[in-house]
Amino acid sequence: MLLGAMLLTLAFSSHAGMLYQWTDDNGQVHFSDQPPARPHHVRPYASLTSSPSLYDASSSSTEQPAPALTPPKSVTLTLVSPNDGATLRSNPGELSVTATVSPLSIPAEQTRLVLDGQPVASPPTSSLNASQRQLDWRLAPIDRGTHQIQVQYLESGKVIASSSIHHVYLHRAHVNQRHRRQD
Length: 183
Known about the structure:
This protein is mainly beta. The chain has 1 helix and 13 strands. The chain has one helix at about 1-15, and strands at about 20-25, 30, 45, 75-80, 85-90, 95-100, 110-115, 120, 125-130, 135-140, 145-155, 160, 165-170. Strand 9 (about 125-130) and strand 10 (about 135-140) form a beta hairpin. It is elongated and about 70 Å long. The termini are far apart. The relative contact order is 0.16.
């Protein structure tokens, strides 16, 4: 939140038309309307104004800057099902997870499901409705017991947004469980 406010403040105050972000040798993150004097990996952001950029790609920097990006939009992830605290019964150990993400421009490939703190390797199936994208995962076999589920949106390998964590309880018939006799 603070980062977003800082980016907007610098973008509005920038007369150069670009906003630059880089990390120095001490790990300190810098934002400026001017590129750094020393060579660094720089992430430029396009300004909200239409003024031309003063950054010259042929400057003394040894690395070429990344393409201009607009500041990140607000991403909303919501776990739709299963509900938090749900008790699920599935003898084969199947678990279906549905989530929504908005805005529509967020690609499904940049989202991942996290089950019990570990990313799930299978990608979601995706469908669109009027204002959001629906993501579905079908998982099996899942062991019985308590599980934590969360959906995350990633950008350049970093978690940008995440849903709330849902706890679900999966029940499966035990192999050694006695069966009722039909009298």
